[in-house]
Amino acid sequence: MTTDHNRNGENRVETDGPPEPEYPTDVLVSPAWVESRVDQLASEGTDMRLLEVDVNTAFYEAGHAPGAVSVDWREDLRSADAHDILSPQEMRSFLESCGITEETTVVVYGDNSNWFAAHLYWQLTYYGHQDVRIMDGGRQCWVDYDYPLTADPVTPPTVAYERSLEPPARPGVRAYRDDVRDALDTDTVFVDVRLPAEFRGEIVKPPGIDEGARRGGHVPGATNVFWAENVRPDGRFKTPARLRALYDSRGITPDDDIIVYCRIGERSSVTWFVLEELLGYERVRNYDGSWTEWGNMIGVPIEVSE
Amino acid sequence: MYDFSFEITYDAGVDEFVDLFIDRESLRSEAIHSCLDPVELWTLESVTGDPDDLEAIDTLLFDKSVDRESINDRECDPTRATSLLTNEQRQRIVYTYVSDVDFCEAVPLIVAKYLDSGVLFEQTRTGNTVRWRVLLQDDSKVGHLYDTISAKLGDGLSFSFEHLTEVDSWESSLLPQANIRAEQREILLVAVERGYFETPREVTLDELADEVELPRSTVSYRLRRATAELAKRFADRQL
C-alpha cells in the first residue's frame, strides 16, 4: 500500500505507544493509562479489574496484559439456555467470579478492535455497573506497541456483588424485536453495521460459522455503516471530528432516535459505544437479537439490495 | 484441505503496485506465499506481460521500500530481500523474503496470527483486483479471518467473499502439474532425443513406432496429446 504519512498522526512512527485518545477517560482509556496501573490491576484488591475478551479465544493463552482476567464470550457472556445475554443472576455470578464488586473500576479490552469488549461494556451498562471503560485499540494495539505480556492465567478471588441488577438500571440502551417492529416507518434511524454484502443480502453469515439467518437483507430503511469505519488501521477509535463527519455524511445526527444492529449484536456494540459514549448521541439502542433474530422471524419485512 | 477464496478490489491511486496493473492491462501476477510465524513471510511471484509493461514494473519489484503486502495504509517497515529468479522478455519470477516484522497488515501475516498450521496462500493480480486463495488444514477460524481481513481494509479497497470449499484440485503456474500421462511422456522424450522436432525431421513417425514397438497410430496419438498439453499450458501462462 501507498502510505499516507500525514493523516491525523495515524501513521506516526510507533516508538512509545499511541497518543492519548481525545475522549473522556471515564469511558475510554489508553494502553499507557492501563500500563501505569498494572500493579493495581494485577493485585487481589477490588478497586480495579482488567478483563480480556477475544473473539479468538486462543489469543489469551498466547499472552495477555498482566493482571487481565480471561473472559470467554461463548461461556461467560451469553445465557446458553435462554439464548440471550446474561440474566441478572448470571451477570452477578460472572462479576463475582471475576473479583468485581459494585465499586470496582472495570477495564475491558479484546481483539478485533474490541468487538466483545464493547459488547461486555454494553451489557454492564445495561445492568448499571457504575464504572466500566474500554482500552483503546484493544489487544492489537497492546501487542503492536510492545506493552508487557504474560502467559500466566489470572484467577482473582471471588467477591460479593452487593447491588441489585434486577431490573436492569438502563433498559434504554437495549432494543427488542418489538421495539424494532414498532419503529418501522417512523423517524427512528436503523444503523446496520455489517459488511455491505451482508447488508445487501448476498451473505447471511460469515463463512464457516453456523449461526445465521434464513433470509438475507436488512431492516427496511436501514443505513449501512460498516462497524470498522469507526476505527483506524491500528484498532484505535478515530478522532471525534472524523467520527462525527462519518455519521454526518450518512445523515445520522445526534438528536436522532437510533437502533444499531449486526448479526449477533457484538459488532453493533462497537457502534453503540461510539454513538452513545464517545459522541454523546441522545438515544441509541443496541438490538442484540440482530439479524440472527430478524432474518429468521416469520412475517417481518426485510429489504434486499442497496 | 479447505480453500477460502476472496477478492480485494482497489480504487486507482491507493496502492502504487496495483496501479501499474490497472494502467497496464497485459500485466498479470501469480504468487504463492508462506508464513509460519507472523514475523516473517516469503513470496514467490511470477509476473507476466508485454515487455514494456514488465520493464515498468521492474523498479517497483526491486525497490525494498515498496510495500506490496499491506492492505491498509498503516506504515510498516520490515526488512525485504528480493532475488530475481527468472528474467525473460515476457516473465519475471521474483523471490521476496520479508522479515523483522513488528506488524504488517498483509493477508498472510494477519492469517498467521490466527493459524499456526502451515497455511498456503495463492494470490493473483490482474487490473484492479487481487484474488486470494487461502489453503487451510481446517476451517474453524475462517469466520474470524473473514471478519478480520474485511475490517482491516484501507480506504479505497473493497472485499468480496467468493467461497469456502474443500479442495479437490489446485493448479498454479508456479507449480506446473505433471499432467502428461506416463506413456505420452515416454514417447515425447524419445521423439525429442531422436530429433523428431528438428527441422528437417531427423526421424519419421514410422521409425519412432518401430523403435518403441507400437502401432504408428498410437505413437501419433500420444505425441499429439503430449504436445497439445504443453501448448495449452504455455498459453495459460501467457493469459
Automatic annotation (TrEMBL), chain A:
Keyword vocabulary terms for this entry: Pyruvate, Repeat, Transferase
Any Pfam family matching the protein: Rhodanese
Domain Rhodanese: 60-151, 184-303
Extent of Basic and acidic residues compositional bias: 1-15
Annotated stretches, region: Disordered: 1-24
InterPro entries: Rhodanese-like_dom, Rhodanese-like_dom_sf, Thiosulfate_sulfurtransferase, Thiosulphate_STrfase_CS
Superkingdom of the organism of origin: Archaea
Coiled-coil residue spans: none
Any GO MF annotation of the entry: thiosulfate-cyanide sulfurtransferase activity
Name of the molecule in the record: Sulfurtransferase
Organism of this sequence: Halobellus clavatus
From TrEMBL, chain B:
Coiled coil: none
UniProt KW Coiled coil keyword: no
Transcription keyword on record: yes
Residues covered by the HTH bat-type domain: 183-231
Keywords: Transcription, Transcription regulation
Residue span(s) of domain HVO-2928 N-terminal: 3-170
Protein name: Predicted DNA binding protein, contains HTH domain
Organism: Halobellus clavatus
